[in-house]
Amino acid sequence: MNLQQIDTFVRVVESGSFSKAAVLLDMAQPALSRQVRALETELRVALLIRTGRGVVPTDAGRRLLEHGHAIMQRVALAKEDLGAQRDEPVGSITVALPPSMARRLTRPLIDGFRSGMPRARLVLLEGFSVNIAEWLVSGRVDLALVYSPAPHPQIEITPVLQENLCLIGPADSLAGRSSVSFERLVDYPLIMPQRGQIFRKLMETQAALSQIKLNVVWEVSSVPAILDLVQGGYGCAALTGSASRGDIDEGARASLVAVPIEAPRIVSTLCLVQSAKKQATPLIRRTADLLQRLSLQACTADTQA
Fold first, then answer.
1. What is the DSSP string of 219-241?
2. Which distant-in-sequence residues (6+ apart) come within 8 Å of 37 by Cβ?
3. What is the pLDDT of residue 203?
4. Contact yes or no for 84/282 (Cβ under 8 A)
5. pLDDT at position 127, please?
6. 123: closest CA among 60, 73, 59?
7. DSSP state of 150
8. How many Å apart are CA 305 and CA 299, to the nearest integer?
9. SS3 for 295?
């Protein structure tokens, strides 16, 4: 058993297929299969179940995955510790982004690593804020952007920017409106993420305080998919203005209108979060600075647009 085999196994399980892992690791798929088979032979146990849709871990595979995460984290810490002596960002870092930011920040983040941290490895995950907070506590993620996170003793929270939620809808349904009061939202069919997602949680909390019932007609967990449905006339959405502008193309953007929700305003705070227990290595510090700068630039560009 060697580190490359363990890393390969972890990436295959996390991506759910050999083909996706091969792209992430820039390796030939047969080579990945051989490494996993070598692990299964040495450990004398099946680690993966091959299905028509990909692979899923066996019970033994799930146990090895836990060990694999811990082993690779220790290896990364060793590299970062030695690199820290030179104040050089080296090693591997896993960053999680919410769907409303992932599309706009992925490429700039990778460009930032290629130009400013060429010896570091970046792994990007996408998920809703409630899931990202769990990943951070469990150690799966090193650094993340999260909307309005709940305080937690194991998490350090740094506010980056605040945005108001807007009602997003077809231009004809919101024509002439500069804003919409919260109590008037009952007049609009809403397409919202599942319960627990932060934008929906903020909306439902205010609905309870205002003693009104929101008219949620569809539940969809993808921000781009929500915007596609809004454009198609299936309903309206409650999102930040930057989310509505960043996840659609120019043609679709012209057909949608975003008006602020007021009386009261619903404010979402984008925060940089990281583990309170992990050492702030040069890689973590540089990545945190890059995330904050890119987030502010994206918001500024959206506002000017």
1. E-S-HHHHHHHHHTTS-BEEEEH
2. none
3. 92
4. yes
5. 84
6. 73
7. P
8. 10
9. helix
Task: Identify any residues that bridge with 49 across adjacent strands, giving them in sequence order.
Answer: 56
Tokens linked to 256: 């949608």
- DSSP H helical ranges for the chain: 3-15, 18-25, 29-43, 59-84, 99-116, 129-138, 198-210, 223-231, 241-246, 250-254, 282-304
Distance CA 122, CA 129 (A): 20
Give the whole-angstrom CA distance, residue 102 versus residue 97.
Answer: 5
User: Other C-beta atoms within 10 Å of 185: how many?
Assistant: 21
Instruction: Give residue 205's identity as a one-letter amino acid code.
Output: T
Mean pLDDT by 10 residues, the chain (305 residues): 89 88 84 91 92 88 91 80 68 87 88 90 86 84 89 89 89 83 93 85 92 92 86 90 61 75 90 85 90 85 55
The pLDDT of residue 132 is: 87
- Whole-number Å distance between alpha carbons of 133 and 145: 9
Q: How many CB atoms lie within 10 A of CB 102?
A: 20
Q: What is the pLDDT of residue 185?
A: 92
Q: 3-state class of 121 per DSSP? A: strand
Rounded to two decimals, the pTM is 0.65
CATH 1.10.10.10 domain span(s) along the chain: 1-75
Query: What topology does CATH give the domain 1-75?
Result: Arc Repressor Mutant, subunit A (1.10.10)
Q: The CATH number of 163-268 is which of 3.40.190.10, 3.40.50.2000, 1.10.238.10, 3.40.50.300?
A: 3.40.190.10
Residue 220, both tokens? 């969809």
